[in-house]
Amino acid sequence: MNFHVFTLVWGTPFVRKYVELALPFQMMPGNLPALAQDHRVIYHLYTDRDSRPAFDPEINALEEIVEVQFHELEELTDGTRHLLEAAAALKAPEYKYFIQKFCVRDCAKRAADEDALVLLDSNFVVADGGLGRLAGFWDQGVRGVMVNVLRNTEAAFVDKWWLNSASVGPRDLFDHARDHFHPLHDSYFIDSSAPTSYPIQVCWPVDGGQVYGRSFLPHPLMIPVRPAIQAYQSTMDYDLTLRVCDDDEITVISDSDEILVCKFSDPGHQSAFEPGQPLTPENLALFILTSTHNRHRRFAAVGNRFRGSHDSGNWDQIEPQAENFIEMAYQEVDRIISLGPQLDARFLMYIKSYLGPIEDYMSPEMEPAELRNLTGENTSP
After folding, report:
1. Which helix (H) or strand (E) holds 334?
2. Which of 5, 256, 323, 339 could potentially form a cystine with 118 if both were Cys, beta carbons 3.0 to 4.6 Å apart?
3. Distances in Å between the alpha carbon of 159 and those of 47, 155, 270, 381?
4. What is the CB neighbour count within 10 angstroms for residue 260?
């Protein structure tokens, strides 16, 4: 069995953070070494030419575990144009997402159909054991593995507290992560004083410092290599797994003891977003209709228990509250849809996107152009 691991990172500062903070966790015994024990693991690193020296010397240790292949962005073409030329006119964050989508498709082309594709961000920290479990999921017939990611500031990892540990399990990782939640993650909490205006996750505090979460757009940690990868239109979280897998092939991780993924960012990341209103089922319903697809509901139906080393959480109290809140939001979605004849064309476009096949899903990345087409506005730059 072949597992293809995908990572995209360029720019010397970002490469150094990847090799110093993220890569050591991937090389813990229950992660890449466990995955490579009985399977071929090809690790694809996408970067630009100038950044290649910044991977040394740490990359040598990775090469002792798996087969590493570097792919330079300057060498990638779509048959008519070089990748960087095609992306040159885009601004952040569209520039990054365009390159990411292109590289994911390129990585899939280098694999065989029904190989496994493991999708990592360069700022992912994976607790020991998480990557090794992917082989077990595959053997059970699971093809899509989705994870609700905890967002942290870099302060959770820059002191390299794990250096004297051969292994860092999920509970130890959570203990360190929860003291450094990113402001964006704080905004996902149901009682946040600065709530997000874009609630891709909803979190509840649990006794003992634990966290209970629901996610509409979990990260696709593993998917099968299939032709539909070449057709996905948005970012990985929005439509990739749903295009590639049937619902019964997908599992959502429900307990951090199984797989825990943290994502570190600068504290100022996405700081430009305006805070939203306190989260209610009604305004969550508007997010669901305008930013998700009906198949994302099965992701949000699965709760995730994030546990620390002293788990004494009141899960039985929190889980019914969360279930009721999410269910009320979807009841409001159904009510809004029932008002279809009374709604304007702009909102009907959202409903069509939400209810239609995933191939017609208008993700937020695609939304502006689609809405301009609908309303007849000028679409020229």
Report:
1. helix 315-338
2. 5
3. 26, 7, 24, 45
4. 29
Say which amino acid occupies 293: H
Of 339, 355, 348, give the one whose Cα is nearest residue 370: 348
Tokens of 125: 């920290």
Give me the sheet containing 250-252, strands edge to edge. 67-72, 40-47, 2-8, 116-121, 219-224, 144-147, 250-252
Retrieve residue 134's tokens. 């992917």
Q: Round to whole Å and give the CA distance between 123 and 35.
A: 20
pLDDT in tens, the chain (381 residues): 999 999 999 999 999 999 999 999 999 999 999 999 999 999 999 999 999 999 999 999 999 999 999 999 999 997 788 999 888 888 888 889 999 999 999 999 999 999 999 999 999 999 999 999 999 999 999 999 999 999 999 999 999 999 989 999 999 999 999 999 999 999 999 999 999 999 999 999 999 899 999 999 999 999 999 999 999 888 899 999 999 999 999 999 999 999 999 999 987 766 556 778 899 999 999 999 999 999 999 999 999 999 999 887 789 999 999 999 999 999 999 999 998 778 887 788 899 999 999 998 988 877 655 545 544 444 333
**Coil, strand or helix at 210:** strand
What pTM, to 2 d.p., does this model score? 0.94
